[in-house]
Structure formats: structure tokens, C-alpha cells
Amino acid sequence: MNILVIEARYYKGVSDALLEGALAVLQEAGASITKLTVPGALEIPHAIAYAEAGSQNFDGYVALGCVIRGETTHYDYVCQESARALMDLAVDKALVIGNGIITVENEDQAWARAKSNQKDKGGFAANAVLEMIRIRTALSEPAT
Fold this sequence. Notes:
By secondary structure, this protein is α/β, with parallel strands linked by helices. The protein has helices spanning 12-28, 44-53, 74-92, 107-114, 121-140, and strands spanning 2-8, 32-38, 60-68, 97-104.
């Protein structure tokens, strides 16, 4: 399996924790991993679209990032549009994408979801990719 892990670096420490969880799962599964960083959550769908248009063939994508609510409505737009764009890519192009972009109210919630010894949302997103690759493979095989 060839997996592209895209990490939004806006909240660097939280992103590092998400990445740690995702890499542990993918390495244990024996996946070939390519890592790419982007500035923020809104850039992740762009990176996946660019990868799909490129010459490398990825079996799946793990999207990692963090959006923490601030004082403006920007939070709502980033959360909604990054999730919508990932879902559009997954459905319209039949891509396997694990959404590990956490959307939280504060930094404490972010850390609780990012740390691999707590909610491990990075590991969860990586596991989702591995499972969806298995499902896609099973559904593409001829019925017996």
C-alpha cells in the first residue's frame, strides 16, 4: 500500500502528535508512506487533488490537521469547507481518504484528541484508510 499523509502545520505541536499516531498505524501495517506538509486544513484537499493529477499512484490519503475555534466565523468556514472538499474528493473520485482534521473548541480538546495515548485521531484516520482500502479491494473483486 502506498499512502500519502498530508499534514497541516498551522498548529505544529498538535500536528506532530496526530502524525505520530498515524505513522505508527501505517508502519505497523507495512505501508509505504509519503509525507507532505501544507500550511493549513484548507490546503489539504488541494494537495490530494494535485497528487491525483500527478504521476505517483497512491492507494489512500491521510489528512491531518487541527482547527481551533477563535473569535470569528473563520473556524466554521475552515471546518465545513475542508470536510466538504475531502468528502467531494472521496465520493466523486472514489478516493480513500482518512479525515484526521480535528475541529475543537480549545487547545486542551486538541491535545486530548491528538495524543496517541489518548483519543489518537491520527491513528484513527490511518486505520480508516487501511480498512477502506480493504473494502474497496473486496468490492472490486468479481462476485463468486
